[in-house]
Amino acid sequence: MTSLRHDDVIEFTDGDVDSNPSTTTTLGELVDQRYSRRQMMGGMTAMTSAAFGTALLGGCDSDDKRSDAITVSDGTTVQTQGGRVVTLTATASANATNTGWSQASGPTVALSTTGTSVSFVAPNVTTATNVVLQFTASNGSTISKANSTVVISPATLDFTAVAKNKSDIVTVPTGYTASILYRCGDPLAAGVAAYANDGTDGNFAQRAGDNHDGMSFFGLAATGTSPDASNSTRGLLVLNHEYINPRYMHVTGQTIADKTTRTVEAEVVKEIEAHGVSVVEVTRAGNTGAWSYVQGSSLNRRVTPNTPVAFSGPVKGDPMLRTVYAKDGTTGRGTIANCANGAMPWGTYATCEENWAGYFRRATGDAAIRTAAGLAKQNVSFARYGIGEGAKGNHLWSTVTPADASSTVYRRWNASASASLPADGTGDFRNEPFTFGWVVEIDPYDPASTPRKRTALGRMAHEGVMAGRVIAGVKPAFYMGDDSRNEYIYKFVSATAWSAADAAPSNRLAAGDKYLDAGTLYAAKFNADGTGQWLPLIFGQNGLDANNALYPFADQADVLANARLAGDALGATPMDRPEWTAVNPVNGEMYCTLTNNSGRVGIASKSSERAIDPANPRAYVNTRNDGKVNSGNANGHVLRLREANDSTESLTFTWDVYAFGARAGADAANVNLSGLDDTNDFSSPDGLWFGLPTNAGGQASPLLFIETDDDAYTDVTNCMLLIGMPGRVGDGTTKSVTSSYGGTATTTARIGAAPGAKLKRFLVGPKECEITGITSTADGRSIFINIQHPGEEGGYDNITSHWPQTQATGTGTGRPRSATVVITKNDGGVVGL
Predict the structure, then answer these.
(1) Short-list 542, 587, 531, CA closest to 725
(2) Which terminus has fewer CB within 10 Å in the chain: N or C?
């Protein structure tokens, strides 16, 4: 036996020849005899390359007397690990007319056969596991077979951590490629011109919007437009456009008269249309080729703040949704401030409205008008959601004078009440803020469908909505964060138990009606002993009624539309800006990023502050190398919880902190509690996502992807993406932590096992960006991420980043653009493994 290794390809020659001239030997005896001579390839370890090529050579001896006897090369044994591409090549004698590969045993793998070669991607496993493949050759009268065994070991993070840097490119590990796919302004419809990127472009209703954010991939059938969740070379990429960078969007920025009035309507049209959601078809050239988006696809779509939407659930038709546009409160217009997202188990996209409150104007004196109209409690609601009197509204949209005097697309952003118009809101847009702050469901496969705002999931600064594991007969749960300082973590439990038949329904939005329009919304309370409760937001229970001193709730619709006030009344735990949620597909544990909180202190002395507690145990001063200071919980942390009985229906849970963000070398006793080093230190975790169970990245020990949106560490590095392989709640320890900012205080932190080598920096983005939005194909061999607001500190007259133009050569001259990036492993394996 000889074994040759060339560039991580194993060539194997047995040298043994199977031939049996006897006419009395049975086929079974022939097989048994050959198997007794099988050689085993030993001493081969899993390699960095994902490709294992094993050439199994054989032929007929010169004394072969039968022309119909078929010989095949003996099998072999190779070793690999989860996520690697395995390739086996066999040979058969020249008289074989048919050859093929099949799987004999082990976990089922998808085989790809070319001639006498077969390839598959190894699944992830918890212990060494064998996959046995059988090669068969025949000529119609005789047949010969050989088995090869692939020993699969548990996967590891098999890449070298990317160094922290401040380059103006997307940096990925050696062995990976990052390619630009879909940029701000790219044309979606046929006939729309290429983006000039000089401020002159318009028609964003048919272009990619700005500031790409949360994102999901939906597979398409290879032919036609029907869903195929398993297809990893053609699909729909659906992504949010959270906000805009007007200093790059217009030729010389926004035109504003006296800093109070927008005077150029075309600018405002462009800005509004650049918000919302894109649905864009993307394809890959074969299994390993380049990705591109399909301009002019019949499935391409933009959902903007002007797109008609429908309300569903308990708040549908409530008086608080009535406006001059929708007098019955059942419909509305558009979605805005779309940050994170969720892919629903029945094949739809859920986009989440986050910082919508800032877009509304509210005149001084509005509170008095509402009070006089008997609507004083609306002032409490507006204050709790951040729409104070005197608010001008982002970009002053409500101040533009439209060419069409009957148009309300700008006036709607003025939430001021008019004393001369009906108090029910049907004469103006005093109630327009109540039409935002929801989870919005979109059917990506039907561009004619109307998006639905799912009011049963509550109204807040929704960061995302992630479905827990769906198990037949169990009511599914959907986890959400409210992204603002000292807000809450929520879950919604459907009133309907999951049916496996709904994984591929004929009417996807009807499935959404079934699971999302009725159920119970809960807010989380975290106890010092590592336990917690889900507090139900149900009208008439626990003080959520008209007698509540904080806010008199009228009914369940009022509770849901004012979920923050309901959480206050129930005593939910204020958290350090709850952002994305993610659910481990293997064990169902929920993770939530707590980005940071400048209002976290040792001892609270004013209403904007919250004292440390076990779930938010740090308050300290973070001093940057440039002298800038961040305080409170400056670097954030990732919290996780395990439902009682591992059931989405549970009302109690246990919890700990998976990882605390910190600089390498920071105070280990009170700040760097997770022992991070230069390979995995991070700050301000934001985006969060687990690999899919359809590939090795979501099996056995699923990959956790953590994206950052940071200010506290940008003196050292641009924002980043890390990949981890976390354990379970309770795998670590407890520790007494002393906070020094805002008064000295001590609490007990519950810290997960130190991540160590199971957490690594995978990517660093370009200058002044945020890394956000993440999804993958079903096979995990292509990962999509978004680069948001590169060069955000500059503008048309001071360009501080030239990305993505810089990606190819490292230099450029153009204005920066948010963009979607696709990352692939050069050897075709699962990204990260």
Answers:
(1) 587
(2) N
Query: 130 and 82 share a domain?
Result: yes
Q: Which of 31, 41, 36, 106 is nearest to 76 (CA)?
A: 41
Tokens of residue 613, six digits: 């507690």
Statement to judge: residues 427 and 462 lie in one domain: no
**Is residue 271 domain-shared with residue 406, that is, in the same domain?**
no
Examine the domain organization and report whether 328 and 343 are in the same domain. Answer: yes
Q: Judge whether 467 lies within some domain.
A: yes
Q: Amino acid letter at 126?
A: T
Same domain (yes/no): 443, 427: no
The parent domain of residue 103 ranges over: 2-153
In-domain check, residue 494 = yes
pLDDT tens string 497-551: 999 999 999 999 999 999 999 999 999 999 999 999 999 999 999 999 999 999 9
Structural domain count, the chain: 3
Residues 6+ positions from 430 with CB-CB distance below 8 Å: 323, 366, 370, 415, 416, 417, 418
Q: What is the pLDDT of residues 90-125, one digit of tens each?
A: 999 999 999 999 999 999 999 999 999 999 999 999
Phi, psi of 248 (to 5 degrees): -105, -25
Beta bridge partners of 261: 257
Ranges of the chain whose pLDDT falls below 50: 1-66
Residue 18, number of CB atoms within 10 A of its CB: 24
DSSP annotation of 511 reads H
Which amino acid, 198? Answer: D
pTM: 0.92
Residue carrying the six token digits 């060494």: 128
Q: Domain for residue 144, yes or no?
A: yes
Would you tell me how many other CB atoms lie within 10 Å of the CB of residue 241? 30
In a domain, 790, yes or no: yes
Reference 536, options 498, 578, 572, 499; nearest CA is 572
Strands (E), 248-390: 256-257, 261-262, 276-284, 291-293, 301-303, 308-312, 331-333, 338-343, 349-353
